[in-house]
Amino acid sequence: MSFLFISAIAFSQTKKFTINGIVKSEDDQELLQSATVHLERIKDSSIVSFTITSEKGVFDLTGETSDSKIKLVVSFIGFKPYVKIIDVKNQNIETLFLKNSSLLDGVVIKSSAPITIKKDTLEFNVKSFKTKADANVEDLLKKLPGLEVDLEGNITVNGKSVNKILVNGKPFFGNDPTITTRNLTKDIIEKIQITDTRTNAEAFSGEDADGENKTINLTIKKENNQGYFGKVAAGAGTNNRNEYAGMITRFKQSERIGILAGGNNINSPGFSFGNQRLQFGGNSRSFGGGQGIVTSNNYGANYINSFGKIFEVSGDYFYKNSSSDNKSTSNRETFLSDGTSFFRRSENTSLNDSDSHDASIDFEIEIDSTFRIDIETDLNRNLNTNRFNSQSETLNNSKTLTNDSKIGSIADSDRERFDNEINLTKKFGSKGAFVRVELTANLRKTLTDDFVKSETNIYGSNPDQIIRDQYSDGISDIKELASQVTYRLPIIARKLYLDIDYTVGNTKTTSKRSTFDFDKTTNDYTSFSNLLSTDFKYSDKISRPGVELEFKNEKWSASTELAFNNRTLENRDYLRPETNLVREFNNLEYGFSTRYQKDRTSRYRLSYNFRNATPSLSQLQPFRDESNPLNIITGNPALSPSKTHTIRLGASNFNWQSRTGFWSYGNISFTNDNVVANTIINPNTLIRETSYANADGFVNIRGGGSYSSTKKWEDFGSLKTEFRVFGDYNKSINFNNGVQYSSKITSISPNIGFDFSWDGVVTIRPSYTVSFSKNTYDIESFSNRNFTNHDVTVATSTNFFKKVEWLNDVNYNYNPNIATGFQRSAWFWNTTLRYSILKDNGAISLRIYDILDQNTNARRVATEDYIQDSSSTVLNQYAMLSFTWKFNSLGNAGSKFEPQSRSRHN
Predict the structure, then answer these.
(1) Binning pLDDT at 50, 70 and 90, where does residue 351 land?
(2) Considering the entire predicted model, what is its pTM?
């Protein structure tokens, strides 16, 4: 009651107001679009309200405050900020004139605007957004309007995925964005910039991005770009659970060196430093190539430096080893076209050990303002051992045992990958012309050794038993060479272009697998099995000339393309020459796209394309694969390419003034000649004979959107509300024992979520999702089915005495359609009690995973012709005590970490 009383008093003392006006440049009286207008409290410079001007330079600023006077600030790139103390009341301040900053000789202007909109960049001023004292970048991103961060760390900007995060324009420890967002702290960041994702070459040549992905760049203050930053963490818990992690990065102007390490046996990547969701591990999280419960160790290093204005190098190296233990069970009911069905029960156990080395090095060479060279090289080696055991049995419609099998195997693999790409871009003149040459050389090599023992029993009128005790060694060698040449011809300078490109490529694959049966005479694996051995050579040649016409101005961009795709697939079988195959495919591909940017906050897009998908060689080659005696697969050399028409549309808008916004998308595709499996099941033995066929009539419609709004209360907190809905309609054509039929799956998943923050006291993030799915069939023997799933999550953070933080992560899942014997509902509750020490640079945490001991990953999967319920090993309840410490010497303090040069005395 006291809380409500105090809140009511606080709210009653605030008053609402509206301020409007027009912004122009002083020199030429030009209306300034996308200027930032914001209000600051005089006592602490906190942001009360902000907006941006329209295309006519108009702004309408609304807000509420208990202050009587407030600071008005107007900012625009290239102009001196306009600053004035005004009374808090409804008023029209008419026209404001900004002076050109070039008049201020030698003066550096730093804007305090919370948001700055440049030509193609949205920039946030970090100081304008309140977070807890030790907030990391992910905590900060959650506060920014238009950005969403899910529980796994995935980021979206107005519905567009963020696929690249940079620090001062450069990668930070590879391609995993959570290493950056969950380990860099807010206090070292000055600005957050958001742009459409482009390659270095595209940015250099001035090409537009497709707008489907976003890049976030974190800028560190220039004066802070020297010194050391890092974190260390370690924890020990019940049931022998443990973890450790450490990272240190040295900044020295253009040079950056980083080292990190981590390990645990709680299914965590190891670099989360106390992040609750990751260190607890998700219900289905795996890391290091395993499933179930994973023990992993990970080490990495990163180096970036610029040498003058011409040459820049960046590289990183990661070593990972993991060991996983998993046991899974599944029950599947498969439906047949005659109205009957059969049932398969299986239990599998696996132990997997993996060691991998990943290294990459990139060179950026900008010879001059017209010529650039980008070189990227990636290397990977993975050594893997898997021990697998499986037992399964299949029952017919009368629940009579029809077949069963036992399999035990030990498989070793050694995989090597070597990828190289060279990109050369040369610009001509001032109208946007350029020539680009891209050269690609990729090498793959895999060595395998397998020992397999299996027993398959077939019952019924023609019983049979297949016993195998075999050893196989295999080698796969892939060489891929490709090149693309692109020439851009400006028709109207900087507005209308014609791109002409030509791509050629050739991928050669050698695949050989020699299988030997155990010979009791020699007591060794010496009996060559022609049935299960293979010796193939593949060739995949591509030739693709194309043209694209592209137009762009301040509001519109549009393009149309046409390409001719020639592809030749060739297979040579040295064990079975009769299955040799050569197929040539010639197809046209075309499309168009358009985007309209009404203003700096509103975007709309529409695109259409027609594409062909060539069947794979494994689907084409008439080789009879009998490695699984219960599921025999044979290719179909008469397959045609699939043909797909796709329409995409989208819209987004965010009102900075009211902190409300929406984004939406829709995708529609129609496919003919789609390649589908055509399976015939023997009614007596239930052995599956599978081939492939083309089918027409595939339709997929996907759509979704989000609407969010944020309400802020001065000196109190904020409440963000978001409603999302996603829908999917999928019509597919299938074959079941020679009978063709269609299946239609319709699903919809609405979600509502709230993010309430009482500044410095408590944060509550509840969310509810309900999913509905309906499966219908046009074959009488199949029954239509409906599925429902409920999911509730609540994440809370409560602070006590500024030193103690209590974190909770609660999830409730209810699946009423799960089969008997599987858990239909479960509460999953994790909690952390965290105490700050060492002037907030350290923390001691007590974490309890799955307090209620109900963790489960039971799940149901429904497809066109089967329903399967399954579960596998999950992480069980444990408690862990951990310590975390961060250190930061960036800025002036960084000099004490730098080696000092010795003075010379003569």
Answers:
(1) very high
(2) 0.82
